[in-house]
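Below is how a single chain appears once it has passed through the pipeline. First comes the sequence as given, then the structure the pipeline wrote out for it. We keep one example in the README because the format questions we get most often are answered faster by looking than by reading.
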Amino acid sequence: MTASDKVMIYGTGDVAVNRADKETAFPHVAATLAEPDILFAQLETNFSLKGSQFPTGHGAQHGGPEMVDLLKKHGFDVLSFASNHALDLGPDALLDTIDIAKKAGFAFIGVGKNIDDARQPAILERKGANIGFLAYNSILPPGYWATPTWPGCAPMRVRTFYEQYEIDQPGSPPETYTYALEEDLEAMVQDVKKLRPQVDVLVMSIHWGIHFMPAKLAMYQRQVAHAAIDAGVDLILGHHTHILKGIEVYKGKAIFYSLGNFCMDSSIMKTWPKVPKRWREYWSRYGFKGDPEMEGRYPFPPDSRKTMIAKCLVSNRKIEQISFLPVYINKFNQPTMLSRDDEKFNAVQEYMTMVTEDQELGTRFTARGNEVVVET
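Resulting structure:
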């Protein structure tokens, strides 16, 4: 197989473009987004203009047709909407978003009109290789998971238990235990086993984890990731936490526990500088304040401006190399590619080393040119 026959897959973090001029979202990454054969993103807002705030919704936003056109223009092929925002505007908006996405030509995964629909994979053929995608969601407000008669996400629900760690220290932090719901774990395993014979490479996206908190992984994440790889997944792309998390290599397969944000606009911008109480509580609980340089454009931890694009090189119908391209969110909330000679490039690599070592994942990173190769 020659270099031209190799298949390149790029995966980005959370995307929700809700600014007045959507064309300002990707000017500094446009050339990079045009490089891969398959470009994936985690969608964090509806495309639909229908619907209104759902009873359990939070931060509901309409993406609109301009966002659809923007993502098509920049080459996105596969979108997961298995998100805690999928039903923010109610079932009509979700069903409309699914219809809009499919008519626009996106492979749209992780949601559906019912549970069978939500579990459907996407298979893309590139240069003779079949690449399969599945998507799941663990961040599930009530009613956000699909059932036989209700639209929503393909779920990976989780049970949480707390135990007082020091019984003689009242008020001390508890130990937290989390386990995937057995029926959801088994359903995912069966989805993977069903898809595996049809594809050369199988990619799984999952919305999960502890948001805003550096490094920390929830117990269930490794349980789910390892079960997925044992069943036949080749690459896991994690999302939701709005901050980068570590990378694990399990049985030779890479797990990106969180790709962080890629381009996240938030409705909080409309109320700045009067920050909503909810965000003040978040900041207090997780120990950070808004980045003053962002002037209200980006209500996330300063460290979440460090981000990346996951890069997967497929050769001879199997994964040859996994790496990532360091990216930084500039003060105008625009993702910006970093070159090796930029100090921010080193900052992203060092941050990834820190969060990976903190969770004892055992992965090493080697910079080669303007990318960082994932090694063990």
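The chain has a mean pLDDT of 93.

See the next section for the split statistics.
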